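Appendix B. Raw example, untouched.
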Amino acid sequence: VDIACAWSRRRRRRSCRRSNHAHAMSTSAVMQAIARPCVHARVAPRTQNKAVARRTVVAAVSEPEAAAADADDEKKTRRRFPRKNITVQEDQVVVGASFTGKVKRIQDYGCFVDFGAKTDGLVHISELQAGFVDKVSEVVSEDQEVKVWIKEIKDNKISLTMKQPPTEEELAAAKSEQEAKFAARQAYKKAQDVKSQAVKALKKGQKIEGEVKSIQPFGAFVEVAEGVEGLVHITELSDDFNVNVEDFCKVGEKVTVTVIGIEGAKVKLSMKEKLDVSMMIVCRSWLTILVSLCARICACVCAIAED
């Protein structure tokens, strides 16, 4: 009986130790899982016939060490930027204002300039200087001081230019020049309309008295209407070869010309005295009749002489 009681007490002690040990193991496993995730290590099969074995290795890391590691990771991922010195207020950032700043970044399409505002401005490659720019680095470099003007503000983006904007006097001069060019174009258009109407009034074969305006080696230009000049080619001055235009007319002289062709606004003239085709036909018919009469008269005279 004593032996049985001792054996039972021994078994109860062993079961209590096992339960306490299991409780301690479960608590430590939970703390380690919270501190760091499990790392799985795979063991390759030794042979093809054996199955793949896996085991889970839990790294023993204490809670303070895990918190310190997380703090180090957070410090590494957080980027630190230097604090910007803002000297230009928002109400000073207006179109046309000029500032002096430093080039912070250079890109292929332009450069970013810090001129003291909260947001850096972009100077496009086309606004670096007058004329064509192949590379931005050929004009500016980083940390270079430049003078810029605000060109446009859109969606909190500031567009800058390094070209000095024109003054009020230059703008007024450009505006007056533009108005003068517009008036000149309108006058030219009106003159062309008058010229086209005058050309439409001309007819082929019409004889007109005009004034010689200019003489060229290939012919003479004669004004046949107001603002309408026609060309008398050198071949239409005479039937002879190697003629001189100045032998037939001079600048400012009044001459009689004949319209021989109209092509759009171009008028072709001639100074030759050409016969009318109808007159040529009449003359030819009378000449034929005269020749036939002469032949008959000759035949009668010959017959009388033989008798």
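End of appendix B.
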